[in-house]
Amino acid sequence: MIGIVLDNISRLDLNLLVTLDVLLDELNVTKAAKRLNLSQPSVSVQLAKLRDYFNDPLLVSNSRGMTPTLKAEQLRQPMKEAIAHLHEVVLPTAEFDPERAKQRWRIAAYDYGEATVMLPLLPALRAQAPLSELSIVQLPPTQIYEKAERGEIDLAINVVSNSHLNLHHRTLFSDQYVLAARKGHRLLNGPVSLDIFCQLEHVMVSPDGDGFWGETDEVLKALGLKRNVVLSVPHFLFLKAILETTDLVAMLPSRIAMMSDLIQIVSVPIQVPDFTISMLWHERVHRDPAHQWLRKQILLAVT
């Protein structure tokens, strides 16, 4: 049955529907031809094709011109709506108007991305797009592509990995790990040697709160050393509070460490590789004006 319907539709030139729409408005072939910028014989030929397709006269002559048949009356409104929908699909997309748009964006970010990207973005977003809504969700990096492909997120803030190779991405900034501790820490009054660094009680962030190994540990392992990690937490916000109120220390991204007046940054004799934060998005939204506007605002917020 579906095959029969599709076959019937494939026989119809969609331009004929535009002609029929104008004919039903004008009820006159000459006037319709003028509106369509066609000759009267051309419109007559198209009307004949329409009659053949619908197996109905559609328009019949009377003393005042032409009158639509019952079939034509039944077609009139659905056809107008169909033509309007086609125009929406094929015409160029209108420019995005943030002030009037009722847009809902869904962005995947852990609390690091929330603090360093989303928080700086919010003032401009609320001022320029007051009717918009923003939902921030946490996703494992391995799920970003799948969720973006299915339209469940619009964009992600993360480090680019092998699982993201099929996504568009734009670098936002690079950050470095620094040794952070509360100001006045009793063991950090002077230079920190590797021995002291390893003896300090460390806290680290692991998304599931159950990881005790990270980039710093890889660097130390290459030197034949091991630090003393005593606590693993899932969020930087909690870690920052721990550093402010205890003698625990952490290798913390510098942008997070500098957010607290109660935390000091201490020089250490090891270099942990920097990391780069990017925004990632799928091809399905790459050319969308609203999405392009959002990406521009994010770039402006972090530069």
Automatic annotation (TrEMBL):
Gene Ontology terms for molecular function: DNA binding; DNA-binding transcription factor activity
Record key words, sorted: DNA-binding, Transcription, Transcription regulation
Keyword Transcription regulation among record annotations: yes
Pfam families in UniProt: HTH_1, LysR_substrate
Annotated ranges, domain HTH lysR-type: 12-69
Keyword Transcription recorded: yes
Family: Belongs to the LysR transcriptional regulatory family.
PANTHER family in alphabetical order: HTH-TYPE TRANSCRIPTIONAL REGULATOR LEUO-RELATED, TRANSCRIPTIONAL REGULATORY PROTEIN
Protein name from the UniProt record: DNA-binding transcriptional regulator, LysR family
